[in-house]
Amino acid sequence: MELLSNRPLHASVPDKYVFPPEKRAALLHDAPSSDVALPVVDLQRAYLSDAGRRRLVAEEIIKAGKEFGFFQVVNHGVAEDAVRAFRKASAEFFAMPAEEKLPYCSDDQSKPFRVASSTSYDRNQTRYWRDYLKLRCHPVSDELVGHWPAKPESFRSSLAEFSAQVHELAQTLLLLIAEGLGLDEGFFAGDLSGGDTQMNVNYYPPCPDPSVTLGLLPHCDRHLLTVLSQGDVAGLQASYRGRWLLVRPVPGAFVINFGHQMEIVTNGVLASVEHRALTNSAVARMSVATLIMPKMDCRIGPAPDMVSEENPAKFREFVFREFMAAYDTAAANREDVLEYFRIEQH
C-alpha cells in the first residue's frame, strides 16, 4: 500500500490525485463563507449542579445544532496534556519509516487497528490526499490495546487516556442534547451510543497544489456524534446554506457534529451536515475524530417524542447494521443513503 506519509516531499500532485475541474474545491458551490463562524459553546457551566445554568448550555447546543449541525466546545474537561500527548504520538507514528508502518497497512475494515490512504469511497478512482489510522478505542481492554502499535512508545498509553476523556465528554454532550430536546436524560444511553467507539486519525501532508485535489470527500458521518480535535491548522469545511464554511481552529476546542443517526432519532430536528477536508501547501494537518456509534443490532427510528401531527415520522425503523451496509452502497452520499430509510410524505 502506498502512503503519502512515506514520501518526505511531493514536488507535484500525481495524476491519480487530480480531480476533474467540476469536483475541485475552488469550484464546489461558492467561495468559502468568511463572514460566519461556528458557535463556540462554553461547557464549564454544564459541569455544575445548577440546573438552570445547565439548561442554558443545553439550549445553546440545540440552537447551534439546528442552525449549523456543527459547533465547537471549550472548557470541556479533556485535559490539554492528554490532547497534546496523543496528537504527538500520532504524528510520530506517521513519521516512522515505511517498513515500520507496513504491518498495519490494510483495507480490511474489520481490523481493530489499521493504516490506509485516501478513502474506501474513492469509487471514481481519483484518490484523496490523506493517510489515516482507523481504530477501535473504547471500551479499552488488554486485548484491544494489544492490537494498537507498540511504536512510538507513548502511543498506547496516550491513546487510552485521550479516548477515555473524550468518551466522557461525548456522554456529557449526549445528556445535554437530550435535555435540550426535552427527552429523557438517559435517551442516548445504552445501545444507541454503546457500540465500539471508533477513531480516525487523519493526516494530510503538505500538497504541492491544493487547488486540484481534496483531502476528504464531501460526506455526512454515519454514526451518532463526532468529537473532533482539529489542531491549529484549518482545513475542515462544513456546508452552510449552499456555501462552504471554513471551521476556524479555536485554541483548545473540540469540533462537534451530528451523524446520520442523530438526524434520524430526532426526526430531522438535528440534521447531519455535509463536510469535507481541504489540503494546504505549507504544513501538514492532522485531525483526530472520535465517533460515537450505536451497537450493530440497535433498533433505530425517530423518537416518539420527536414525532407529531405537525412533524410526522420522516424515517422508518431499522437496525444499525442495515444502515452501515446502505452507507457503503451509497458511497457516503448523503441523499442516497437517507433515501433507503426515508418515509414518503403524502
TrEMBL record:
Belongs to the iron/ascorbate-dependent oxidoreductase family. Coiled coil: none annotated. It comes from the Eukaryota. InterPro entries: DIOX_N, IPNS-like_FE2OG_OXY, IPNS-like_sf, Oxoglu/Fe-dep_dioxygenase_dom, Plant_2OG-oxidoreductases. Keywords: Iron, Metal-binding, Oxidoreductase. The keyword Hydrolase does not apply. GO terms for molecular function: metal ion binding; oxidoreductase activity. Residues 195-294 form the Fe2OG dioxygenase domain. This is Fe2OG dioxygenase domain-containing protein. Its cofactor is Fe cation. The lineage of its organism: Eukaryota, Viridiplantae, Streptophyta, Embryophyta, Tracheophyta. The keyword Iron applies.
